[in-house]
């Protein structure tokens, strides 16, 4: 077992973990943060995307021990005081989801994109989200939502 | 899926990492964990069963890009994301920056590293063929010091590099290619998929003609390859027709695999077509 200390959505956790434990399993099974889903388990779909030390990562392709000392933000950490973030609100308003399975990963990837490129074109949004698959929407409304969020003054 | 159990160590210096690998010795199967974007999927699918994983993710000396005369020295643990944005790489090794921007997707590029993708030696990976075309060198450190391995000697076989079990890839050196035109042409099924075939082209022009062309091939054999016959035929080409004729030789000497994505014959066809496109773009004659 290896000792880790990780800050997740603002709370610091100290845990003994097996080195083979994936970050996604740590988040879901140990911390009970099941807002981040497991999609493909092959690092293709991006459903499990979270933020680690300020950048998007696929949490099925990171070991919990690699996050030791780091700071993780999941979809559950986006809303503040029960208020959806501008990006979450845009997904809601533009109907950027149907089944919702890809949504946590889409939100985290879109947040990363907007941090690097606050006013992306539709094409840049599509490229920025290339690591996240949606099987329902055909992506149109997801692109619209990210564009809408990028027009807000409030950071995503 | 859950990876098999392994012992884990996280050294904080290259010396310590090399010692961990050397201590593992012949009896224990040790694997270096860089960004983990190739190794973790292999572990999850239970295609690899290392007894010891040496995580080199916290060794500051392995990250970053510096100039060394006519060469760029890139730390093995520099992430794809950082390579793409690095001003020195963009200025002096544009081919590397352009090709790295096509690797997988942003989340993978945040974790994946240049050294990791080279040491993994996957012929379907984009960067082995690029470093081969750049005439790069790889610096390995073992218990007895450092040695330099030319890119052409580094890729030994499918997923096999020239690194010894107790050696760590510490640096990638590429000669500055200022003044060379470049292009990486990647053919893949969907945005983040591996290249079915990829072509890395570098072109130096002189007096309206191609003075020298270098062509690296992704996924045209068990290792990345240079399209030597096409390179030779491209010398002196002065227009698009000449480039098209020379590119017909791009698949000579290759041994592409047949798999679910493509037959070997189709890959040979792609190598010719993509070489033509890549060289046209790199030469500005397109």
From TrEMBL, chain A:
Respond yes or no to whether keyword Iron-sulfur is given for this record: yes
PROSITE patterns (UniProt xref): 2FE2S_FER_2
Question: What keywords would UniProt list here?
Answer: 2Fe-2S, Iron, Iron-sulfur, Metal-binding, Oxidoreductase
Looking up Gene3D superfamilies in the UniProt record yields: 3.10.20.30, [2Fe-2S]-binding domain
Q: Which domain of life is it from?
A: Bacteria
**InterPro entries recorded:** 2Fe-2S-bd, 2Fe-2S-bd_dom_sf, 2Fe-2S_ferredoxin-like_sf, 2Fe-2S_ferredoxin-type, Beta-grasp_dom_sf, Diverse_Oxidoreductases
Pfam families given in the database record: Fer2, Fer2_2
Residues spanning the signal sequence: none
Residue intervals of the 2Fe-2S ferredoxin-type domain: 2-78
Q: What is this protein called?
A: (2Fe-2S)-binding protein
From TrEMBL, chain B:
| Name of this protein | Xanthine dehydrogenase family protein subunit M
- Enumerate the Pfam families for this protein: CO_deh_flav_C, FAD_binding_5
Which InterPro entries does the annotation name? CO_DH_flav_C, CO_DH_flav_C_dom_sf, Diverse_Substr_Oxidored, FAD-bd_PCMH, FAD-bd_PCMH-like_sf, FAD-bd_PCMH_sub1, FAD-bd_PCMH_sub2, Mopterin_DH_FAD-bd
The FAD-binding PCMH-type domain is annotated at: 1-179
Q: Which SUPFAM superfamilies match?
A: CO dehydrogenase flavoprotein C-terminal domain-like, FAD-binding/transporter-associated domain-like
Entry superkingdom? Bacteria
Q: Which UniProt keywords apply?
A: FAD, Flavoprotein, Oxidoreductase
Q: Say if the entry is tagged with keyword Oxidoreductase.
A: yes
């Amino acid at each position: 077992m290896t000792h880790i200390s990780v800050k997740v959505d603002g709370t610091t956790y100290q845990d003994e973990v097996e080195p083979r434990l994936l970050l996604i399993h740590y988040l879901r099974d140990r911390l009970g943060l099941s807002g981040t889903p497991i999609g493909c388990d092959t690092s293709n779909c991006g459903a499990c995307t979270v933020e680690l030390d300020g950048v998007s990562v696929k949490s099925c392709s990171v070991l919990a021990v690699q996050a030791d000392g780091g700071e993780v933000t999941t979809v559950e950490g986006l809303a503040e005081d029960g208020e959806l973030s501008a990006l979450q609100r845009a997904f809601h308003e533009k109907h950027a989801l149907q089944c919702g399975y890809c949504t946590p990963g889409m939100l985290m990837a879109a947040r990363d994109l907007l941090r690097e490129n606050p006013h992306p074109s539709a094409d840049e949004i599509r490229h920025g989200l290339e690591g996240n698959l949606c099987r329902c929407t055909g992506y149109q409304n997801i692109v619209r939502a990210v564009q809408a969020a990028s027009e807000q003054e409030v950071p995503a | 899926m859950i990876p098999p159990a392994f012992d884990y160590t996280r050294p904080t210096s290259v010396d310590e990492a090399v010692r961990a690998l050397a201590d593992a010795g012949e009896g224990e199967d040790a694997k270096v964990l860089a960004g983990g974007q190739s190794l973790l999927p292999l572990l999850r699918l239970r295609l690899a069963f290392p007894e010891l994983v040496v995580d080199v993710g916290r060794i500051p000396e392995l990250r970053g890009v510096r100039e060394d005369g006519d060469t760029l020295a890139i730390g093995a643990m520099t992430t794809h994301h950082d390579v793409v944005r690095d001003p020195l790489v963009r200025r002096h090794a544009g081919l590397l920056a352009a090709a790295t921007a096509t690797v997988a997707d942003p989340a993978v590029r945040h974790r994946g590293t240049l050294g990791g993708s080279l040491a993994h030696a996957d012929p379907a990976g984009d960067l082995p063929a690029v470093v081969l075309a750049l005439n790069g060198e790889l610096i390995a450190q073992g218990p007895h010091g450092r040695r330099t391995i030319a890119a052409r000697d580094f890729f030994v076989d499918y997923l096999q590099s020239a690194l010894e079990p107790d050696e760590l890839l510490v640096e990638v050196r590429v000669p500055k290619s200022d003044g060379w035109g470049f292009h990486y042409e990647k053919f893949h099924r969907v945005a983040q998929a591996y290249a079915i075939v990829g072509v890395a082209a570098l072109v130096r022009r002189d007096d309206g003609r191609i003075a020298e062309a270098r062509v690296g091939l992704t996924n045209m054999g068990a290792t990345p390859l240079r399209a030597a016959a096409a390179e030779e035929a491209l010398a002196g080409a002065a227009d698009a027709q000449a480039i098209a004729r020379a590119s017909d030789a791009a698949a000579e000497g290759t041994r592409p695999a047949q798999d679910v994505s493509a037959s070997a014959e189709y890959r040979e066809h792609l190598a010719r077509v993509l070489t033509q496109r890549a060289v046209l773009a790199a030469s500005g004659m397109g």
